[in-house]
Write a structure and sequence with these properties.
- By secondary structure, this protein is α+β, with helices and mostly antiparallel strands.
- It has a domain of 114 residues: Tetrahydropterin Synthase, Chain A (2-Layer Sandwich), CATH 3.30.479.10.
- It is built from 3 helices and 5 strands.
- The chain has a 5-stranded mixed β-sheet with strand order 3-1-2-4-5.
- It is elongated.
- The model has no long low-confidence stretch (mean pLDDT 92).
- The chain binds zinc ion.
- Zinc ion (ZN) binds next to strand 2.
- The site of zinc ion has 4 residues, from strand 2.
């Protein structure tokens, strides 16, 4: 006697196959890479203050970094798709919001949304959050993490984040 698979097509059961959505908050992350030049310099202070504060990053002739950007979106998987957020949509958003304006650019002088901002890693994660968050179609932005080098990175959890309530 043939085994009747409840979800297989063409069996006696007239009901459509159903998926079983799972409940749970999850975080998905996309990582992208870009190169950019910058200079850390606060024109409101003296040259010696700037040299002392920023060291080599104050070089008046610029220098570059190989940045790694990780962007995480949090939410419950959509019961229809199983996705918190479609990573190909996130890839497109990061391309338009961050990579096109920043990759192979000078962050001090070529990026409109960074005008007047000292492009430290800390300031960049806040500025990037502000560019990405309004463009998300599903889920909500959880974390923006930016590596300026293999050992140094900054992260931002959004304007509501307080250090005494660090999200996991
Ligand atoms: Zn630097």
């Amino acid at each position: 006697m043939p085994v009747s698979l409840p979800h297989s097509r063409g069996q006696a059961s007239p009901s459509k196959p159903r998926v079983r959505p799972l409940k749970g908050t999850t975080i998905v992350t996309r990582r992208v890479h870009f190169n950019a030049a910058h200079r850390l310099h606060n024109p409101e202070f003296s040259d010696s203050w700037n040299e002392g504060t920023y060291g080599p990053c104050n070089n008046p002739n610029w220098h570059g970094h190989n940045y790694e950007l990780e962007v995480s979106v949090i939410g419950e998987p959509d019961p229809r798709t199983g996705y918190v957020c479609n990573l190909s949509d996130l890839k497109q958003i990061l391309g338009e919001a961050i990579l096109t304006p920043c990759d192979h650019r000078n962050l001090n002088v070529e990026v409109g949304f960074l005008e007047g901002v000292i492009p430290t890693t800390e300031n960049l994660v806040i500025a990037f959050w502000n560019q990405i968050a309004p463009k998300l179609k599903s889920g909500r932005l959880h974390r923006v993490r930016l590596y300026e080098s293999e050992r140094n990175f900054a992260e931002y959890y959004g304007p509501k984040f307080r250090g005494d309530a660090l999200p996991d």
